[in-house]
C-alpha cells in the first residue's frame, strides 16, 4: 500500500507533536472498540502516523488509533472544522500550535468516507500491544520488507494461487488488487500459478517483483502532495485490459471476478496460453 505509506509520511510531517484534545465520531459505526477509550490519549502529543498493511496508525502514548480507510476513505487535514463535514466519519482535534511562520495552526484531522457503505473505521488499541491486537494481529509480514526465505516458507505452507496469496493480508500485508496484478507480471508468473509449485526459485522471483513494484509506486506517491486515487496510479497491467503490454506488445488480458479483475500478459506470464475468462474452468497453471 504505497499510497498509504506516503500519506502517513505526509501526515507525520504536518501533525507530529500536536497535542490531542478530542476524538469525535460522527456516526456510531466509526469507532470499533470500547477500551481503551480515546480519552486515554487526550493531552498527549502525536508521536507519528505510521502504517501496518493497509492500516494507518495514529500513534500517541499510551493509545494508538488504528484507521482503515477501505476503498473511498481519506484522513485529511481539516481547516474548516465544520459541524457536519461532508462524508465525515470521525475527527481528531488538537490544541492550537504555532507554525514555523508564526501563524497559529488550529487544523484537525478528519476521517471521511464518500458513499454510503460506512466501512472505514477506527480501532483504539494500547500502543505497546498494537501489533498483537485486532485488527492487526493476523497480518502477515510487511510486503515491502518480506525476505525471499520468508516468502518461500509461506509458499510451501500455503498451497494457493499466487494472485490470491498476494492479496491475502494474512500471507503478506500491504498488497492490493493493483499491485497483485503488477507483481505477477513483473515476476513473469501466471496469476494462477500454485504457490507450492513455484518453490524457492519462484519465491525469489516474486520477492524481487514485490520489492521493485513497491519501490516504484512509493516513489510516485511521494512525488504527490495528496493521496492518489486508484485511477491515478501507474500500471502496466492493472485496469489495462486491451492495451499493449509495455514489455512485449501483446494484448493485456483479463479474467473477471465479482470484486476485482485479474489482468495479465499471455506472452510474458503464461507461455502464450490464454486463461479462460470465468472462475469454473480448469485454469492452465
Ligand atoms: Zn508482455
SSE topology:
Layout (H helix, E strand, L loop, with lengths): L1 H14 L4 E6 L22 E5 L2 E5 L3 E6 L4 E6 L9 E7 L2 E2 L5 E2 L2 E6 L7 E6 L21 H10 L4 H6 L9 H10 L8 H28 L29 E5 L4 E5 H4 L16
Antiparallel strand pairs: 1-6, 2-3, 3-4, 4-10, 5-9, 6-9, 7-8, 11-12
Helix pairs in contact: 1-5, 2-5, 4-5
This protein binds zinc ion (ZN).
What does this protein look like?
25% of the residues lie in helices and 21% in strands. The protein has 285 residues and is of the alpha+beta class. It has a four-stranded antiparallel β-sheet with strand order 1-6-9-5, with no helix packed on it. A hairpin with a 4-residue loop joins strand 11 and strand 12 (261-265). The longest helix is centred in the last third of the chain and has 28 residues, at 195-222. The two termini are 27 Å apart. Residues 245, 247-248, 250, 265, 267-268 line the site of zinc ion (ZN).
Poorly predicted sequence stretches spanning 5 or more consecutive residues: 279-285
Helix count, per DSSP? Answer: 6
Structural class by SSE content: alpha+beta
Q: Could you say which small molecules are bound to this protein?
A: zinc ion
Would you report the number of β strands? 12
Give the H and E element order: HEEEEEEEEEEHHHHEEH
Q: In which range does the helix fraction lie?
A: 25-40%
Strand order of the largest sheet: 1-6-9-5
Rg computed from alpha carbons, rounded to a whole number of angstroms: 21 Å
Mind summarizing the main beta sheet?
A: 4 strands, antiparallel
Global morphology:
elongated
Q: Hey, roughly how much beta strand do the residues contain?
A: 15-25%
Mean pLDDT: 93
**First-residue to last-residue Cα separation:** 27 Å
